[in-house]
């Protein structure tokens, strides 16, 4: 049986030696090279360079905030396939400080991204628009109230840390959202993030339960201004410190780390009501600005990078038929027949910019009609949706052996199929005079 004295002795052990400035620079440089090399696997060097610049600005904001609030042993490093991070040790625990630090990453990124977007409108340098879109999207995504993103850490510090049960529910919802996004986007990175968040949620639940037990024991007494938990409190919660872990795996170091985390929760002042209102107002304002900036610059990018061309071809019957071909950055991404009114009418095909087929099917007077085939990244049919006058009436997927189709019940249709009904006919946006 591990005693409270042993836990206290472990807490008082000298921590790891502080890294030198040269070691921190080396860590940043090596992790940057690894991140850059990993990025080049699936992206161009310009795209990776823009992403690195956006991440550096983001993490620099966190670093400045942590430096200002007296954090020690600060390190900036990149994580291949994931992003970048700043780590450091708090010298004085505070919910307000954590909230401010969490905002100081996304806020500069959103403003700088929007600034670059407006500069692009004057100078028309493509890399400026690419930087604007990347910066606004990445920082806007980070502001989502999903743990462990910056927005999630902000909400935990300002709102959810007031009650352990609410904090646990908040993190569980985050795990479900991340898991759903990972499955929807087929993202391994989001799947790993969801799993890590689940582990953190489990540990956070036990820490919250122990913290609540310790608050009951303290019964409103003044919190001692000590770095570590006093031994009498360790003695009181010792039976609870090993909760959730098999007895054989409970070690002194584990109990000491859990004790340290619980004491930080006890010592962390919760932001006042006034501070919480101000911080939440800033958060909501920047979040809305990020969403608006993303919509505007993505729209600008689409409008300036896409070009529709109307051509005519002669059918076997000798008739002239208008065809719309849309190009994005000089890559053909769709081809569709048009009727005399400029509405899509006849066969249509869409591709990715890499030439991989996305979908094909037929239109009738501007509405999808008949079977439409949708393809996966390998160019194989993923599912087939049958439309009647723009309304989906059947969803089918190929059998595992590749022969035959399986009808999917309507209540099991994916979101993209359920919400694919057309409210109005579609056609070309190019001025059209008929065939």
The beta-strand count equals 12
Mean pLDDT: 86
Low-confidence stretches: none
Level of helix content?
A: 40-55%
- Report the β-strand fraction as a percent range: 15-25%
Give Rg in angstroms.
28 Å
Query: From N to C, what is the helix and strand string?
Result: HHHEEHHHHHHHHHEEEEEEEEEEH
Q: How many domains, in number, for the residues?
A: 2
- Helix/strand-derived class? alpha+beta
CA-CA gap between termini: 89 Å
Number of helices: 13
Shape annotation:
elongated
The biggest beta sheet reads:
10 strands, antiparallel
Structural notes for this entry:
By secondary structure, the protein is of the alpha+beta class. The chain has two domains: 229 residues, no CATH class; 104 residues. 51% of the residues lie in helices and 19% in strands. It has 13 helices and twelve strands. Strands 3, 4, 5, 6, 7, 8, 9, 10, 11 and 12 form a ten-stranded antiparallel beta sheet that branches. A two-stranded antiparallel ribbon has the order 1-2. Helix 1 packs across helix 10, helix 6 packs antiparallel against helix 12 and helix 9 crosses helix 10. The model has no long low-confidence stretch (mean pLDDT 86).
